[in-house]
């Protein structure tokens, strides 16, 4: 076990809300616990057997790593990429992503929850609250419902474009989608339960279970209480996506939606919300989803991954080559359009380059569609943009760059970190302009 590995297990072993009398998830914990308890009991033979089990598990649930310089995408990464699909870039045409085209990211298995199972589903609200709640779906639906249009993006989007490449779900640029999420504001439920004055975080637990880098766990993430109870962005406990019950892969029957934050915060198949009086130190909080800029310091705790960095994507113009995806366009005016978003502040500028970043021109930003009640469009949904390019025969590289009102902009050099998070390096679209009939 190398130093980094030991620290992973150490961090996860602390578990959520340790200061609480009761552990949040009693069965949650690293595989290594079996060994520790046996050794404690002085049973050397059993401890040896447990060691064998631990090393067998470690062989299939290895520490995170970065690919060797010439190493291609492995069959394991391909299997992940086939499960966790992205948004086909032509679907950027839709303001609200049609069902099935929104990107999907699932760490373990999609829990099977049929209609009958959804009837029996309960969501607990407990921990540092005055009155613990057990809410079934009918009760959740009985609270006044709100709908928010939210652009969600996986924190790993762009990972496979990094050099060296962190080995994990190999997203290029397509891990994004926008949906109308309907549910109850989280702060309504917390007000109903009554927040104790010493509560500092809310820990969210999904129904899915797996092992990751040797640590067996339920999928869990936390939010600071101030974010959990804010009114803008307003965190939702959502049970509908685009006006229909959540699809299985998006968290049926209920999930968290945290506008402006990367996807990992939006806990799906939500079954438990626990307020704690100490910060949560679970695997997905302190081991995964950290920006660690150094390639070789095993003790770097990194910075937490939170809000979405700005990104613009262009709808690839013209038509594609099947294998290379290189675009073919005709000479003359070509509409270039796409969408841009940021989890920090509204997008204020999109620039387009048709010469691989040598020169840039500002694109026009469209008016955001108003909400059904006539108020201004959602601040947490993407923004469409357009410009016209006069294509001349030859090869070109198109690119776009977003800037938000808080002054964040997309880099032209890769922002590398060991987990491959938040890589909003500008997209590059190679295009061949061919006169018709060539
Ligand atoms: N319970 C649970 N919630 C989860 C995940 C998960 O694996 N389990 N994946 C997270 C990650 S990393 C992302 S990017 C988003 C993806 O949401 P989507 O599949 O609905 O697009 O869900 C988040 N919520
Ligand atoms: Mo993600």
UniProtKB/TrEMBL annotation:
Residues 331-431 form the Moybdenum cofactor oxidoreductase dimerisation domain. InterPro entries: Ig_E-set (IPR014756), MoCF_OxRdtse_dimer (IPR005066), Mopterin_OxRdtase_euk (IPR008335), OxRdtase_Mopterin-bd_dom (IPR000572), OxRdtase_Mopterin-bd_sf (IPR036374). Residues 1-10 have a biased composition (Basic and acidic residues). Coiled coil: none annotated. Keywords: Metal-binding, Molybdenum, Oxidoreductase. One of its GO terms (biological process) is sulfur compound metabolic process. Residues 107-283 form the Oxidoreductase molybdopterin-binding domain. Residues 1-36 are annotated as: Disordered. It comes from the Bacteria. Its cofactor is Mo-molybdopterin. GO terms for molecular function: heme binding; molybdenum ion binding; molybdopterin cofactor binding; sulfite oxidase activity. Gene3D superfamilies: 2.60.40.650, Oxidoreductase, molybdopterin-binding domain. This is Sulfite oxidase. It comes from Streptomyces flaveus. The lineage of its organism: Bacteria, Bacillati, Actinomycetota, Actinomycetes, Kitasatosporales.
């Amino acid at each position: 076990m190398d130093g980094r590995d030991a620290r992973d297990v150490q961090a996860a072993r602390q578990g959520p809300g340790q200061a609480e009398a009761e552990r949040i998830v009693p069965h949650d914990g690293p595989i290594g616990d079996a060994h520790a308890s046996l050794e404690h009991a002085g049973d050397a033979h059993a401890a040896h057997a447990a060691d064998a089990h631990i090393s067998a598990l470690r062989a299939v649930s290895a520490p995170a790593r970065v690919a060797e310089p010439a190493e291609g995408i492995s069959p394991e990464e391909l299997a992940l990429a086939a499960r966790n699909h992205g948004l086909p870039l032509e679907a950027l045409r839709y303001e609200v992503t049609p069902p099935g085209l929104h990107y999907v990211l699932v760490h373990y298995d999609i829990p099977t929850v049929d209609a009958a199972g959804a009837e029996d589903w309960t969501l607990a609200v407990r921990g540092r609250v005055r009155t613990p709640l057990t809410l079934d779906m009918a009760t959740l639906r009985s609270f006044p419902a709100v709908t928010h249009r939210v652009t969600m993006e996986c924190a790993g989007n762009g990972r496979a474009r990094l050099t060296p490449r962190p080995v994990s779900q190999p997203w290029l640029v397509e891990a994004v989608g926008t949906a109308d999420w309907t549910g109850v504001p989280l702060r309504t439920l917390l007000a109903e339960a009554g927040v104790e004055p010493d509560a500092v975080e809310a820990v969210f637990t999904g129904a899915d279970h797996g092992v990751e880098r040797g640590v067996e766990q339920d999928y869990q993430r936390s939010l600071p209480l101030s974010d959990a109870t804010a009114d803008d962005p307003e965190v939702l406990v959502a049970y509908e996506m685009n006006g229909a019950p959540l699809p299985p892969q998006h968290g049926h029957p209920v999930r968290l939606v945290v506008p402006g934050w990367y996807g990992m915060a939006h806990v799906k198949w939500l079954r438990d919300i626990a307020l704690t009086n100490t910060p949560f130190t679970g695997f997905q909080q302190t081991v995964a989803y950290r920006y660690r800029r150094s390639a070789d310091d095993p003790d770097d705790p990194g910075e937490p991954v939170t809000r979405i960095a700005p990104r613009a994507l262009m709808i690839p113009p013209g038509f594609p080559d099947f294998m290379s995806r290189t675009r073919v366009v005709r000479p003359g005016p070509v509409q270039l359009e796409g969408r841009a978003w940021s989890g920090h502040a509204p997008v204020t500028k999109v620039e387009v380059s048709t010469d691989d970043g040598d020169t840039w021109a500002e694109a026009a930003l469209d008016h955001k569609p108003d909400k059904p009640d006539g108020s201004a469009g959602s601040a947490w949904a993407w923004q469409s943009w357009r410009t016209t390019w006069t294509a001349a025969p030859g090869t070109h590289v198109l690119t776009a760059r977003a800037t938000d009102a808080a002054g964040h902009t997309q880099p032209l050099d890769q922002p590398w970190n060991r987990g491959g998070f938040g890589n909003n390096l500008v997209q590059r679209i190679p295009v061949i302009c061919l006169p018709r009939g060539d």
